[in-house]
Amino acid sequence: MKKIKGALALLAVLSLAGCGAGSPSSGTAESSPEGTSGSGAATALEKVEVGVIPIVDVAPIYLGVKEGIFEKEGLDVKLTLAQGGAAIVPAIMSEQMDFGFSNVTSMIVARSKSLPLKMVAPGGSSTGDTKADFASVMTKPDSGIKEIKDLVGKKVAVNTLNNISDSTISEAVKLAGGDYKKVHFVEMGFPDMTAQLAAGNVDAMAAVEPFVTISEADGNVPIFSNYAEPVDDLTVAVYFTSDDYIKKNPETAAKFARAMTESQKFADENPEKAKAVLPDYTSLEPEVIEKLTMPRYYTEVNEASIEKIAEISLDRGLIEKIPDLTALLPSK
C-alpha cells in the first residue's frame, strides 16, 4: 500500500493535456534498427516518428514495436513522449512528427477549426463497464455523493476544461436528470487531484489510470466511469496524422495503420504483456501496475461513439458546428 501511495509522489511531476498524463521529461524509444532479409542482406526500414503520451492507452504501440510488428511492415518507429496532445498537434501540422496520439474530443475540435487532421487507427477504448473502467469519477467515501446526479452543485476536478472529461460528465448528469450547468469543473493536473480532493478543494475528481488505482489506495471511492457512460463503447483516443501527410505518403500511412491495428489486437489479447511494457515509458511501481484496469484495445474506431461525442461537443459549445466526420474518421 505504501508503494502505491508512493507512486503519487513519483507522478507529481507529470502534467496533463488532452486525455492523458504528461511525462517527467520528453524522451524517445525506438524500434530495433535495420532488419535483415532472408539472404542476410540489410533491408532499410522507413523511419517514422510518433508523438505519444505516457499513459496506459499507448501500451499497444510500445508492445507492437517490441514484438516487431512495425518492423514487419518495414517501419522503424521512433516514439517521442510529449507533454500532452496540445504539443503533438502542432508537431504533426509542422511535419516535425509523422503520427500522433490524442483523445477524440480534441480531434473533433481541431477538425472543426479547419485543421486538416485525420484518424488512422484506434487507441484506447472504454471497457464499457461503469464499475470497472480505466477512467472513473472518484470522491471521498463521506462526501455524500452516491450517484451521478449528486454531482450537481459540486466541484469536479478535470485535467482539461472544455474537453472529453467535463463534456462526458455533464452529459451523464443531464441524462440522470440533473442540471449539468450547475456542475462546477476545476482544471488541474491528474497528479494534483487526490491531494486537492483530500483538502476539500474539490468534491470529486475525473481520473484515468494509473490515478484511479492511486486514488483508491488513498481510500477514495468511484461514482461512475464517464467513459463507459453516457456513450456506449466509446473510442476514447486515436492515432492521427495530417491530410497532407497521407497525400504525400499513402503507402507509409497504410503500413502504420496496419501495424497499429495489429498491435491493438495483440495487446487486447495479451493484457499482461501490455502491462509488462508500462515500465518502459512510465515510472509506475509494479504494485500499481498489477492493480490497473486497462483500456480495451479494439481494431476499429467506433464511429457511432465519435458521432455522439461530436453531438455532445456541439451542445456544450466546444464547437460551433459538427465537422465533416467522414474526413476525420479513418479511411475504409
What can be said about this structure in brief?
This protein has 332 residues and is α/β, with parallel strands linked by helices. It has helices at residues 2-10, 59-66, 69-72, 85-93, 104-112, 164-175, 190-198, 211-217, 243-248, 250-269, 271-276, 286-291, 303-315, 325-328, and strands at 16-17, 20-21, 28-30, 35-36, 42-43, 46-52, 75-81, 99-103, 117-122, 135-139, 155-158, 184-187, 204-208, 221-224, 237-242.
Could you explain the architecture of this structure?
The protein is of the alpha/beta class. The protein has two domains: 2-127 and 234-328, D-Maltodextrin-Binding Protein, domain 2 (3-Layer(aba) Sandwich); 135-224, Periplasmic binding protein-like II (D-Maltodextrin-Binding Protein, domain 2, 3-Layer(aba) Sandwich), CATH 3.40.190.10. 37% of the residues lie in helices and 19% in strands. The protein is built from 14 helices and 15 strands. The protein has helices at residues 2-10, 59-66, 69-72, 85-93, 104-112, 164-175, 190-198, 211-217, 243-248, 250-269, 271-276, 286-291, 303-315, 325-328; strands spanning 16-17, 20-21, 28-30, 35-36, 42-43, 46-52, 75-81, 99-103, 117-122, 135-139, 155-158, 184-187, 204-208, 221-224, 237-242. The protein has a six-stranded mixed sheet, with helices on both faces. Strands 12-11-13-10-14 form a five-stranded mixed sheet, sandwiched between helices. A hairpin with a 5-residue loop joins strand 4 and strand 5. Helix 2 (59-66) crosses helix 10 (250-269). It is globular and about 60 Å long. The model is unreliable at 1-26 and 30-41 (pLDDT under 50). Residues 57-274 form the SsuA/THI5-like domain. Belongs to the bacterial solute-binding protein SsuA/TauA family.
